[in-house]
Write a structure and sequence with these properties.
Radius of gyration: 23 Å
Helix content: under 10%
Distance between the termini: 91 Å
Strand order of the largest sheet: 1-2-3-4
Number of strands: 18
Largest sheet: 4 strands, antiparallel
Oligomer: single chain
């Protein structure tokens, strides 16, 4: 009887030991993508035990390549995906979950910005919806490859630049304030906005696309529309119920002619209109 108990315990220990994978053993694999090239460049485990992946895609999105953000559960099953970009080339290289549960993504873009390629920083909420974006760079090539949120709530972003520095290419390090909207621009406070407002778009004038930022202090029915110089509506960028906070929207229209346009924000009792210029 004692021998049989001993053998049973020994067999049980053997079964438990064989169920434990050795370090480096494959537990599962997943593939994501379509019929065209799709590239993953960065992955991080998220606070819910799942994963967030960043890279770029040609299978989905608006242009040649677009930023691709993909959220999975702990088993690698897709929960949601988002693409960000314009008509040209946009490459996502780095992603980190931020303290507010959203994500900060860095890479570089030819669709937006001042030069050939520019650093592109994009902040999203927990669902991958864009809160704001920023480009940094000059007239030459500027590639961003990594971003981290810092202890003060800001961001540190690095890559390399041909626009600035001493040589052909130089390392470029940018320290950004908490929830920043530009290197030298205003800082978004982490608290809720005190009032609704509509910011000047950037760049302005523009020839591909322009970014429009606004803020609402409380949950509101928000409309953001674009009109031509004749007062004809040419685009509705936002038409939804939104929570209080800061938002960023990109307007680009390959069919639009050069000229003066107006963008109008309506949120609750607040209405404001600003001017922008498209130059092709």
């Amino acid at each position: 009887m004692k021998n049989s108990i001993f053998l049973t315990v020994l067999l049980g220990l053997f079964l438990v030991s064989t169920a434990i994978a050795d370090p480096g053993d494959t537990l599962w694999t997943r593939t994501y993508g379509g019929s065209f090239p799709d590239v993953g460049k960065c992955v991080q485990q998220t606070s819910d035990g799942g994963y967030i992946l960043a890279g770029w895609t040609m299978s989905f999105g608006a242009g040649n390549y677009d930023f691709w953000l993909l959220k999975t559960n702990a088993n690698g099953d897709t929960l949601w995906t988002r693409t960000y970009g314009g008509e040209s080339y946009d490459y996502g290289y780095s992603v980190q979950q931020t303290t507010d549960g959203g994500y900060i993504i860095a890479g570089y873009t030819k669709s937006f910005g001042a030069g050939n390629y520019d650093f592109w920083l994009l902040k999203t909420d927990a669902n991958g919806d864009t809160l704001w974006t920023r480009t940094y760079g000059g007239s030459e090539i500027d590639y961003s490859h990594s971003v981290q949120q810092t202890a003060d709530g800001g961001y540190i972003i690095t890559g390399y630049t041909k626009s600035f520095g001493a040589g052909s290419y130089d390392v470029w390090l940018l320290k950004l304030a908490g929830d920043v909207v530009g290197v030298d621009g205003p800082v978004f406070e982490t608290s809720l906005p005190a009032s609704a407002s509509l910011s000047r778009c950037y760049p302005n004038p523009f020839n591909v696309g322009t970014v429009i930022e606004y803020q609402v202090p409380e949950a509101s029915e928000v409309r953001l529309e674009v009109y031509n110089i004749l007062g004809e509506k040419v685009a509705t960028l936002v038409n939804s119920q939104q929570q209080a906070g800061y938002r960023s929207v990109t307007w680009e229209d390959s069919e639009a002619a050069s000229g003066i346009y107006f963008y109008k924000l309506s949120a609750g009792d607040y209405t404001e209109t600003r001017r922008m210029m498209l130059v092709k």
